[in-house]
């Protein structure tokens, strides 16, 4: 469940009550007087927008805009209320939470001068996590921490996982558009990431994704869209960690290249006659995108490709709990690696280019997946892979 506890709406009764300086809710939000005796930087900004907003009751912090005032986590009643919200959902059977804006609970632009905002935020998430585990020891807490890997690792000491930003477009997508993977770059980069997590936060794991609700859909940036999207899907779904799929990726939906909120969060294309279809927004960018119902009938569609990979991952211990290891292949257009568990080893090979390529490596084993179910030619020490194709071999 997506849990948004950094801020409320400005229309929320709590915030309306907080505008009275004598209200018990005054301390639930971060207020500063006109003369700013509290020690805040009222000129601070976040995301190139002001973090502080003025009304008749003073200045209040709202790093996501004036309509979204931020909670004050220095107030014990706020902490307790947020834990009770988590308790409510966990007792309903929710398995865990995606923690929205996790690093902004104590954002530097809204805390008092001299505050270590990261230390304070991690301290809160540890308190929150410990509480959730008392309700459900298996509750899973995933933080949205859009920052450097080093900062993510600090938060992962308190959480079970965090999203790895920028790999979808900057690593996977760019490598595929370039059609090359110098020095097995995708695999070596991801190996470094996975090893860092294991050494710094051994109980946490990475959560991978291609694009999300704050970015343009990765498919928008592709040229050979159907083939390249199948490749990005295969990369995301065959690595160590937890893969996430932003709705619409699995059918190849596009988004606005500027990444504006509305244009990257358009309604899912179920099919014109489907009762699930909504029409609150005219999404002209997807006029040529085949809907989900139509793709379900095509065994070679992008949606069918996703389903096959997800089914394979779910039944393959090497894929859903294995350890990642790059495998050299002698071809810069090829990305190759193994996923290894105690029960199983899988060799994954991706041809990133739009031309047939040969990978030079040990191909012993049973082929359990190929894109579009193509046939591949191989010897004991090489394999010929069609353009934009993934091959998975069970050792």
Please outline the helices and strands.
Blueprint: E1 2-3, H1 13-18, E2 31-32, E3 45-46, E4 49-50, E5 52-55, E6 58-61, H2 76-91, E7 96-99, H3 117-135, E8 140-143, H4 149-156, E9 161-163, H5 167-178, H6 185-200, E10 205-208, H7 225-237, E11 242-243, H8 261-264, H9 292-296, H10 302-315, H11 317-321, E12 323-326, E13 334-340, E14 345-351, E15 357-359, E16 366-370, E17 377-378, E18 383-385, E19 390-394
Parallel strand pairs: 1-7, 7-8, 8-9, 9-10, 10-11
Antiparallel strand pairs: 2-6, 3-4, 5-6, 12-13, 13-14, 14-19, 15-18, 16-19, 17-18
Helix pairs in contact: 2-3, 5-7, 7-10
Overview of the structural elements:
- By secondary structure, the chain is α/β, with parallel strands linked by helices.
- It has helices at 13-18, 76-91, 117-135, 149-156, 167-178, 185-200, 225-237, 261-264, 292-296, 302-315, 317-321; strands at residues 2-3, 31-32, 45-46, 49-50, 52-55, 58-61, 96-99, 140-143, 161-163, 205-208, 242-243, 323-326, 334-340, 345-351, 357-359, 366-370, 377-378, 383-385, 390-394.
- The strands form five sheets. The protein has a six-stranded parallel beta sheet with strand order 1-7-8-9-10-11, covered by helices on one side.
- Strand 8, helix 4 (149-156) and strand 9 (161-163) form a beta-alpha-beta unit.
- The radius of gyration is 24 Å and the shape is elongated.
- The two termini are 37 Å apart.
- The relative contact order is 0.08.
């Amino acid at each position: 469940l997506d849990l948004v506890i950094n801020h409320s709406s400005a229309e929320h009764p709590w915030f309306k009550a907080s505008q009275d300086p004598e209200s018990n809710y005054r301390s639930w939000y971060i207020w500063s007087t006109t003369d700013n005796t509290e020690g805040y930087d009222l000129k601070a900004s976040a995301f190139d927008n002001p973090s502080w907003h003025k009304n008749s009751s003073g200045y209040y912090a709202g790093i996501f805009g004036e309509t979204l005032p931020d909670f004050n986590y220095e107030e014990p009643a706020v902490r307790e209320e947020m834990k009770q919200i988590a308790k409510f959902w966990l007792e309903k059977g929710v398995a865990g939470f995606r923690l929205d804006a996790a690093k902004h609970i104590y954002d530097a632009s809204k805390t008092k001068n001299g505050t270590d905002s990261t230390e304070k935020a991690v301290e809160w998430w540890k308190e929150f996590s410990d509480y959730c585990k008392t309700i459900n020891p298996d509750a899973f807490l995933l933080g949205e921490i859009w920052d450097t890997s080093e900062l993510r690792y600090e938060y992962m000491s308190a959480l079970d996982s965090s999203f790895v930003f920028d790999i979808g477009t900057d690593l996977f997508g760019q490598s595929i558009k370039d059609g090359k993977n110098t020095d097995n770059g995708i695999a070596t980069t991801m190996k470094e990431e996975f090893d860092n997590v294991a050494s710094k936060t051994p109980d946490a794991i990475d959560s991978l994704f291609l694009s999300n609700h704050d970015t343009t859909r990765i498919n928008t940036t592709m040229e050979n869209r159907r083939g390249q999207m199948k490749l990005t899907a295969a990369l995301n779904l065959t690595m160590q960690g937890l893969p996430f799929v932003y709705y619409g990726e699995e059918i190849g939906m596009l988004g606005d290249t500027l990444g504006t909120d509305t244009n990257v969060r358009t309604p899912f294309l179920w099919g014109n006659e489907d009762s699930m279809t909504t029409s609150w927004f005219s999404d002209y960018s997807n006029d040529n995108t085949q809907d989900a119902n139509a793709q379900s009938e095509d065994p070679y569609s992008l949606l069918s490709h996703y389903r096959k990979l997800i089914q394979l991952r779910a039944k393959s211990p090497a894929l859903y709990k294995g350890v990642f290891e790059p495998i050299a292949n002698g071809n810069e257009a090829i990305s190759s690696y193994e996923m290894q568990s105690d029960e199983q080893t899988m060799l994954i090979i991706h041809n990133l280019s739009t031309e047939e390529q040969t990978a030079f490596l040990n191909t012993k084993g049973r082929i359990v997946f190929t894109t579009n179910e193509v046939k591949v030619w191989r010897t004991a020490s090489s394999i010929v892979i069609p353009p934009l194709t993934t091959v998975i071999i069970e050792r």
